[in-house]
Amino acid sequence: MDLLQAFTDDSAAQAGDKRLYLAGYLHRADVWASFSKDWHKELKAWPAIEYLKASEAHHLRGQFHHSQWDEQMRHAKLAKLAAIIAHYQPVSYEFSVNGRLFDDELKPVSPYGFGRLHFTMCFAVVSGVARFTAESPVRVPVQFIFDEQQGVDADVEMFMAEMIKALPVEARKLVDGLPQFKNEKEQPYAPLQAADLLAWHLRREHETGEKPARTSSLISSDGHLVQEIPDEVLRSWATHHATLPGVPLLRSKRQWKDFKAEHKRLIDAGIDPSKITGSGIYYPEGSSVLVRTIDWFRRQLFRSRHLSL
Fold this sequence. Notes:
- It is built from 12 helices and 6 strands.
- The chain is α/β, with parallel strands linked by helices.
- The model is unreliable at 305-309 (pLDDT under 50).
């Protein structure tokens, strides 16, 4: 066994605490290849659909918006797809966060990229699944595949190395490269559709207080990892972000885009921005790359403003 793959999709509640769920499945890469073939075979079976999106199935729209579809046929189709998941027995997992608290307290004091829920939850999934795997009998590198989220991939790439430093060495070694963000409609990434089905059911249960009948069949009986980012942790992050130098200059989408462009320019030139120091600038031992990079960028912005006067 050379590689595990963790496929993750998301579903966000629209009421209450607006909790965001990222959920998915972990299994061997070779097993996922066989799974994808069986999954697409069932998709093409009558009544055929091109892909599965749980929200479309629930509302009988999109792929399920045809006269041939009714609730009974939808239930039958979903049952057959859920049976494929059960047959392959992947490890299931779920990660969630209070979306309302994130938006109300953390987002306003964070750099633009750090104020995006999917950015934060991507690292939560990588950390949690890597730790879980490191503590399991099968310690094999894990490749992380997420459903596409515009702009998040570039932000994750920029901070991934720094973020995983917080992991135990055993878990850090199991993170196989940068997370990938793929289109769930493409055949090689069919497990993302299974992850979507799980995430939707978990979110639905939280939002309505009622457990959909199919939820239990989507959760692995051999292992189901559950992690929730506590509200007090979000508040501690908000307190920390509010003290970082230069953050007010990185809160807009445009400011963040300019920051990433300048960061890339330096990296391409062989310069590590986190190691830049200037006259009178001192970074205590252990200062994070975020602190040092933002402070450097802050100084550059003020310099450019001064020269333009």
